[in-house]
Amino acid sequence: MADGDDMLHLLRTTRAIRRFTDEPLTDDELWAVLDAAQHGPSGGNIQPWQFLVLTDGDAKAAVAAVYRRAYDRYETALLAGLPPFRTPEAEASFHRSVRASRHLAEHLQEAPAIVCVLVPDGLDLTMHDDEGPLDIGHPCASVYPAVQNLLVAARALGIGGTLTTVARVEHDDLRSAAGIPDRYGLAALVPLGRPRGEFSQPVRRPVDAVTHWNAWGEKRARP
Ligand SMILES: Cc1cc2nc3c(=O)[nH]c(=O)nc-3n(C[C@H](O)[C@H](O)[C@H](O)COP(=O)(O)O)c2cc1C
Question: Taking 70 as the threshold, does the pLDDT of residue 2 lie above it?
Fold first, then answer.
């Protein structure tokens, strides 16, 4: 059983992994990460998701071809409209991320497993009262915690992955390629495999830069 420090280390080093060895994942590993995902929270515990797990070469290749097309379009648009970078480090980090994303787009079919997380199209948890609709937030808030559970569980088993959504750019083609029923939409496509490199801690803004205590703007230095 992982102690608290181990758990925190796993959380801090659960980052986007896009380059995989070709060692297959075992069924036990896949069931374990799906089970962790299944234990994610959702509004009213509705558990709206379905998982489509692709391990078969032809099935992965069909989806990867659509992913590649979607990514090409996205990357072209992204690079055409870049704002200026604040620092050379930020620019270098951005371009590293684009290179890794492109690598994934060009090699997705080689990932040992691809998990498509599906949600009912038009999922809407909005209730109404006499004053109108009651906004309780975006319905995807009931899906992505499960995806993050899956990624953290994978990390605990030495398996890497990345939450991706770019395939939605070619959503209808993705549905056809993967045989996803019309009533479902793609919330996330998660390639999984053993990382080619090491797990490392990603760069993030410091906690105190984004935290307010008791009142907006009240800051505390981290002890
Ligand atoms: C909602 C969401 C959508 C994402 N979509 C993609 C994607 O389509 N393709 C991709 O390669 N990475 C995708 N990512 C991964 C992010 O680029 C990655 O989490 C971020 O750059 C931080 O990476 P790091 O943890 O390694 O620092 C997505 C992440 C999130 C949370």
Answer: no
Q: According to DSSP H, which parts of the chain are helical? A: 4-12, 27-38, 57-80, 88-107, 144-156, 171-178
Protein residue whose Cα sits closest to atom 14 of ligand 1: 164
Residue 52's pLDDT is 98
If you take atom 11 of ligand 1, which residue's CA is the nearest one? Answer: 101
Ligand 1 pocket, mutate which of 164, 174, 189 (most atoms under 8 A from CB): 164
Question: How does pLDDT run across 113-166, given as a tens digit for each residue?
Answer: 999 999 999 899 899 999 999 999 999 999 999 999 999 999 999 999 999 999
pTM exceeding 0.85? yes
CATH number of the 4-84+97-210 domain: 3.40.109.10
Separation of alpha carbons 54 and 118, rounded Å? 13
164 lines ligand 1 (CB under 6 A): yes
Verify whether ligand 1 is closer than 6 Å to residue 30 (CB atom): no
